[in-house]
Amino acid sequence: LTRAADAETALDAGADALGFVFAKSPRQVPPDLVRSIVADLPPLVATIGVFVDAPPDDVRRVLDECGLSGAQLNGSESEEDIRAVGAGRVIKAFRICHSAELESVRDCPAGLVLIEPYVAGKLGGPGVPLDLDLAGQAVATGRRVALAGGLSPANVLDIVRRVRPHAVDASSGVEQAPGVKDHAKIRDFIAAVREADGMAAG
Fold first, then answer.
1. CB proximity list for 49: less than 8 A, separation 6 or greater
2. Are 166 and 144 in contact (CB under 8 A)?
3. pLDDT of the chain along its 202 residues, tens only?
4. I need a surface site. Which of 34, 36, 81, 149 has the fewest CB within 10 A?
5. Using CA atoms, how far apart are residues 39 and 19, in angstroms rounded to an integer?
6. CA torsion, points 174, 101, 138, 11, in degrees to nearest 10?
7. Cβ–Cβ under 8 Å, residues 156 and 192
8. H or E stretch including 4?
9. Phi, psi dihedral angles at 186 (to 5 degrees)
10. 196: closest CA among 148, 152, 164?
11. Which residues of 7-34 are buried (b: 16+ CB within 10 A; e: fewer)?
12. C-alpha distances in angstroms, 113 versus 82, 116, 166, 167?
């Protein structure tokens, strides 16, 4: 998220967590802006900073300065880095190409692992589908697994229903431009996730 209005819409629609990118990206947002958005949020809202290979001390400093509850580490961070940030408040991202890599997912000390696609050197997003077989295998490890990459209001209901992850993470799939969220898509996405949850409960 890069705008306070987008954060408000996501919360009103029922989002469980809000993410802010600090790594170099079209969605990168300065700490001062994140701090001001977070300061206006209701208490107990999960807020996540996204980092790529930042030193653990820097990650902890940004989390504290911005009042964030956790960090998503999207680089090649080691288990020591995860523990240095605080494993219980870390989401570690993995780009999984084949099942042999699931051992890293199983052994990761982070509180939550995030699985996203990696195809021909391109990270997940529009046109890069999530491998649902591998995602299902990741969930079967018993880890708390979040899914990301190519998720949209059009496909998330089926993916959640089939794979039953702990969470799903959307960015480009609910945007009108990089960093600018489409409020209708946010509402439709979350409504689809809740519908899939209701199917499981039934």
1. 19, 20, 21, 22, 34, 59, 62, 63, 66, 68, 70, 71, 72
2. yes
3. 999 999 999 999 999 999 999 999 889 999 999 999 999 999 889 999 999 999 999 999 999 999 999 999 999 999 999 999 999 999 999 988 888 888 889 899 999 999 988 755 544 444 567 788 989 999 999 999 999 988 999 999 999 999 999 999 999 899 999 889 999 999 999 999 999 988 766 5
4. 36
5. 14
6. -30
7. yes
8. helix 4-13
9. -60, -50
10. 164
11. bbbbbebebebbbbbbbeeebebeeeeb
12. 11, 10, 10, 10
Rounded Cα distance between 184 and 102, Å, is: 35
Which token pair is 64? 């504290």
Distance CA 53, CA 45 (A): 25
Which residue type is seen at 97?
Answer: C
* Cα gap 108→88, rounded to integer Å: 11
